[in-house]
Amino acid sequence: MRHDPSPSPAAARATSEPPAPARLLVRGLAKSVPGGRQLFHGLDLAVCGGELVAIVGESGTGKSTLLNILAGLDEADAGEVEVGGTRLGPLDEAARTRLRRERIGFVFQAFHILPYLTLGQNVALPLALVSPDADRAAAEAGRLLAAVGLGGRADDYARDLSGGELQRVAIARALVHRPALILADEPTGNLDPDTAARVLALFAQAVREGGAAAVIVTHSPATAAVADRVLRLEATGLRQGPAHG
Ligand SMILES: Nc1ncnc2c1ncn2[C@@H]1O[C@H](COP(=O)(O)OP(=O)(O)OP(=O)(O)O)[C@@H](O)[C@H]1O
């Protein structure tokens, strides 16, 4: 785990290479909740492709709210969010939905896997929403299921899976459309420590190989430990580690 606040290991891989472009850029973000209490202001963040950033902080500081703003599901009071080179601010609702479908992958604590679809159908869904090529979506889903250790299970129904297996399906689904940005909220919240460690290692490997920028909100030191950078959310923005406090 690094505690260096400077941009990304992806950028630092070779000093002779130009820095990797940020897949997620946040400038001067501010957010208050209804009633007027300000959660944060002046929040800046840049995450490069292949980089995993963990965001930690005390309960109620606004981590989930921040994730929702990054996804274009909630509006900031001030500041800008740019995903894969596109600024969210000027987009209307339809364009935001399209950007979310095409450029962002989500891993939720509650999985949101559809029980009466097969694993292959669940994983293929984000790609099927943006591409008419069903064969390609099925092939990509099969490839990612194999990558998360569920090869050969594409025709099994999601309702029959364990929590750890469902979480692996959720990770495959978040990656299938090769998003610029992956947002994960407590991605291993319901898993036992051994399964969580395996799932996290798969997630980190897939993010790094796929070149997405990833932001993980977590209370878990074990989850934060797989990140390249750990940032703590405070009222004045994101500060570098420690993992808790
Ligand atoms: N729509 C809303 N109306 C009023 N208050 C809200 C609203 N949405 C969020 N809040 C408040 O904003 C604060 C931040 O909530 P948020 O869920 O983002 O925190 P968090 O850091 O993710 O917390 P936790 O770690 O407990 O999940 C909380 O005090 C919450 O009650």
TrEMBL record:
<keyword id="KW-0813">Transport</keyword>
<feature type="domain" description="ABC transporter">
    <location>
        <begin position="24"/>
        <end position="245"/>
    </location>
</feature>
<dbReference type="InterPro" id="IPR027417">
    <property type="entry name" value="P-loop_NTPase"/>
</dbReference>
<dbReference type="InterPro" id="IPR003439">
    <property type="entry name" value="ABC_transporter-like_ATP-bd"/>
</dbReference>
<dbReference type="GO" id="GO:0016887">
    <property type="term" value="F:ATP hydrolysis activity"/>
</dbReference>
<keyword id="KW-0547">Nucleotide-binding</keyword>
<dbReference type="GO" id="GO:0005886">
    <property type="term" value="C:plasma membrane"/>
</dbReference>
<dbReference type="InterPro" id="IPR017871">
    <property type="entry name" value="ABC_transporter-like_CS"/>
</dbReference>
<dbReference type="InterPro" id="IPR015854">
    <property type="entry name" value="ABC_transpr_LolD-like"/>
</dbReference>
<protein>
    <submittedName>
        <fullName>ABC transporter ATP-binding protein</fullName>
    </submittedName>
</protein>
<dbReference type="GO" id="GO:0005524">
    <property type="term" value="F:ATP binding"/>
</dbReference>
<keyword id="KW-0067">ATP-binding</keyword>
<dbReference type="InterPro" id="IPR003593">
    <property type="entry name" value="AAA+_ATPase"/>
</dbReference>
<dbReference type="InterPro" id="IPR017911">
    <property type="entry name" value="MacB-like_ATP-bd"/>
</dbReference>
<dbReference type="Pfam" id="PF00005">
    <property type="entry name" value="ABC_tran"/>
</dbReference>
<dbReference type="GO" id="GO:0022857">
    <property type="term" value="F:transmembrane transporter activity"/>
</dbReference>
<comment type="similarity">
    <text>Belongs to the ABC transporter superfamily.</text>
</comment>
